[in-house]
Design goal:
The chain folds into two domains: about 120 residues, Rossmann fold; about 200 residues, NAD(P)-binding Rossmann-like Domain (Rossmann fold, 3-Layer(aba) Sandwich), CATH 3.40.50. About 45% of the residues lie in helices and about 15% in strands.
């Protein structure tokens, strides 16, 4: 078989990836994939996700999309970082162990700083401490920048306000109905911001105990996971896994803004991004609005303060406003505007490095 006929390498070439590391360790049960998408702006930084994927090809597809998204996220946020991501195939509630994470850390270390990891779905800062025992290429550690979730949620909150400013004429969320899909680390912090501004919040999550706890703590309404798309709402905030904007849900969603923390929210970026614009729904490009977490990690890597990270995350408001305004002026979907901004910076820096 020629290299060009290899489906993995062909997919890497199609999406512009530099490197993929497949990790397997029978002793610890570790099965993981690390994808380095682009290192023009700096070392690839992106979190590690632990999820029980249906199969290895599903995991590969996810890590390829997520790592590319990190390249764009870091670029549009003005960070000197490239994009990468890792996924560990397994149940985060039953398969974690010190040995597994330390073995994963040795795989990360084998990339010699080309990839810096951090927490993502299914992973906690304490898990990263085990990884850190085997490699220094870790961010989001306790005692340093720590859990990036609060900064991510703050950035999403500011992005939602920017969307409201454009759609409703005011960035006040008081009285607005906002459906938050997923109330894990980021989703719960977002609910806190929204309820403090007197928004009418509806939540859902696949973990019932988390759902009930958050509902009780913040006094918000709960619906079943599949019912969230049918809630009469002003704003839909996807904060779980991706691809929830698809052929099925687009016909059900009753909102004029989509702005949340999830990655890869559009199942088909070109098709669904255009359809949202044609329907008059403002879409905040996911890797732009959820950049607070990587901003937090960057502050740790560069030795910057938590105050710097908070202020930088607040700038997401202005970035989202700019994207929406350029989208309206050119009648171009917001995801295309965001991609263009990110790609232009990478191209410009790439020219400087080659000269």
């Amino acid at each position: 078989m020629n290299l060009t006929e290899n489906p993995v390498i062909s997919q890497m070439s199609l999406m512009g990836h530099e490197e993929i590391l497949f990790c397997n360790d029978q002793a610890t049960g570790l099965k993981a994939i690390i994808a380095v998408h682009n290192t023009v702006l700096g070392p690839a930084l992106g979190g590690t996700r632990m999820w029980m994927y249906a199969n290895e090809m599903e995991a590969l597809k996810d890590v390829l999309r997520l790592s590319k998204g990190m390249t764009y996220k870091n670029s549009i946020s003005g960070l000197n970082l490239g994009g990468g991501k890792a996924v560990i195939i397994g149940d985060a509630r039953s398969m974690k162990s010190e040995a597994l994470f330390r073995r994963f850390g040795r795989f990360v270390d084998s990339l010699a700083g080309n990839y810096i990891t951090a927490e993502d779905v299914g992973i906690s800062p304490s898990d990263m401490q085990w990884v850190n025992l085997e490699t220094k290429h870790v961010a989001g550690l306790p005692g340093k920048s720590g859990d990036p979730s609060p900064v991510t949620a703050y950035g999403v909150y500011m992005g939602i306000k920017a969307c409201a400013k454009e759609q409703f004429g005011s960035d006040s969320l008081s009285g607005k109905t906002i459906a938050v899909q997923g109330v894990g680390h980021v989703g719960e912090y977002l609910v806190k911001h929204l309820t403090e501004e007197n928004a009418n919040v509806v939540i859902t999550d696949i973990h019932e105990e988390t759902l009930l706890r958050v509902s009780k703590q913040y006094g918000v309404k709960v619906v079943a996971p599949n019912e969230i798309y049918d809630v009469p709402m002003d704003i839909y905030a996807p904060c779980a896994l991706g691809a929830t904007i698809n052929d099925d849900t687009l016909g059900r969603l009753k909102c004029s803004i989509i702005a949340g923390a999830a990655n890869n929210q559009l199942q088909d970026e070109q098709k669904h991004g255009l359809e949202l614009m044609n329907r008059g729904i403002i879409y905040a490009p996911d890797y732009t609005i959820n950049a607070g977490g990587v901003i937090n990690c960057f502050s740790e890597v560069e030795g910057l303060s938590s105050e710097w990270a908070h202020v930088k995350a607040g700038e997401i408001y202005t970035t989202i406003l700019n994207i929406i305004q350029r989208s309206k002026e050119g009648n171009i979907p917001t995801y295309q505007i965001a991609n263009k901004i990110a790609e232009e910076r990478i191209a410009a820096v790439g020219i400087v490095k080659l000269s």
